[in-house]
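input
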Amino acid sequence: MSLIMRLFAILSLSLFPALATANSGSLRTGCPTLEATDSGARNSLMQYICFYSAPPGEPAHNASRPEQLPENLAWTPAHGRDLVFSATKSVYWIHLHIRNSGAERSLWYLKLNYPLLDEITFWQTGDDTTESIVTGDQHPFSSRGIDYRYFLLPVTLDAGETRSITLRVHSSGALNVPLSLETPAEVIAGSNHLTLTHGLFYGALLVFAVFNLLLFFSSGTAYYFYNAFYMAALGLFLFAMGGFANQYFWPNSTGFANMSIPLSLTLSALAMTLFGRSFLEVSRGTTSETALKTLAWSCVGFLALTLVLPYSKTIVLNTVLALTVISSLFVIAAVRWKQGYQPALWYLLAWLVMLIGGLIYALAAFGYLTDFLAREALMQFAVGGQVILLNYAMVQRWRLLNQKLLEVEHNARTELEFKVHERTAQLRSIMRELEKANRQLSALSTNDALTGLHNRRHLDNIFPELCAEARRTGHTLTLALVDADHFKTINDTWGHSFGDACLQFIAEMLTRHVKRPRDIAIRFGGEEFALLLPETDAAGARKVCETLLADIANTPLTSPDGTEIRITLSAGIASLSAGESQNQLFERADEALYAAKSEGRNRALFSEATELA
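output
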């Protein structure tokens, strides 16, 4: 009997590993169970995680539910390490046992703190029930169940209940699966903290972008626009990488959700290049300018490729492009600084910060570094530092330009003062000559060249002034329009030369009879004349005109053929009445002249004013 018992014990010990393996296969994993009420255990969640990488071709790769997994699956304990994998085509299965040893029903959230995963399925198994959530970037954002940029799985456990949680994760890019188990209060506190941090970051980035855009509109300086373009494109890239764009911008556009990341990254690279070329003032024909042109056209080409190539390729290509642009700008800035361009120093520091932050962020995004949340915060810190340094570099550039402008202004002022002292005498002489010439020109422009009387331009200038003066003072202003009778016959009979002599004769007579200093004689047409008689009433004007007409009619002229002729004039007279305009006064005088012509000529008629309504 004792021998039998010994044999049974030996057999049991030899079969125990096999039994244990079979038992683990039926339970899917041999990982320990996490006590959800223990905060220390929750903080060490990765000690309780097991995972399996299923490359293409394996049954586990094609399995769509936990029960389809092979019984002998070799699960790998995480041993506290974050689950971070570089780009792979494998499907990753993750398993966790959770128990609630508390005395009451409680809620926890299993949080996956990485938003860029194509396909994720959660299963909860316990008490003969299984719940599942199918979500990821290849599904509408509403599939997550909870409106949150990360993935949250609510885990509700009754007192003493144990549940098994299984995740199936597949993505076309790198895999970051940073898991945590948190109470609702911890989730809310963490969310509030991140909301404040991201709000300050993206708000400041937006303010700087708008500010630079306003500077561009006010100054027309191109690098302000490129800087605003860069900050907007970079902000969109980080917004998409952080899961916010998928949450708020295109929650139902699953295809564009992935494309937006390499697309905005390439736009950022293009904006970096254009801003650097404008700000650094790279000379034409240099190696630096050739490099920047090549980078700019490469960005345009990569933008086109982003629209046709799959995400897994474009994200790698565009990341390499962005890092190449950053490195190139760093080198070109160093060259410009060594050439003596002072603002390049701060530009150089800005891209040094960006190069370090961008490299670390890229390594984390591609699965070569753990703790993506910390790398995201580091990237935001790097971008914030770069934006501040870039704007300070622009301030330094403005100061440099302003200093050069002041120097140019000072030199120009000194030279100008010297020239002013040198040419003052010349300018004074020229001004005197110019004033004299202006007087002569003014006289020529307002005097009739043939008769020497004032012309129509002078009438147009002085007539409104005299009318306004008469209305203001109440004194009488009388206008007489005088026209030579049958003057066309004189021109047709003896020619225009004799006609001009007759006009000069009439002008001489007008000057003789218009004696007062303020009276004005004007030739405003061929044989048409006007007399402006301020402070002269109708009787006085009639007397002047009748004396003038009689004097001319009684003075004979000798024509070219020796014939003695006499010239007669007709006159129309009108005085400005209350409420009458200068045009109305002129029309009345013209009507009186027409009446004098109609009544036989060689006479002066006065037009009586009619009352205005």
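quick obs: The chain is about 55% helix and 15% strand.
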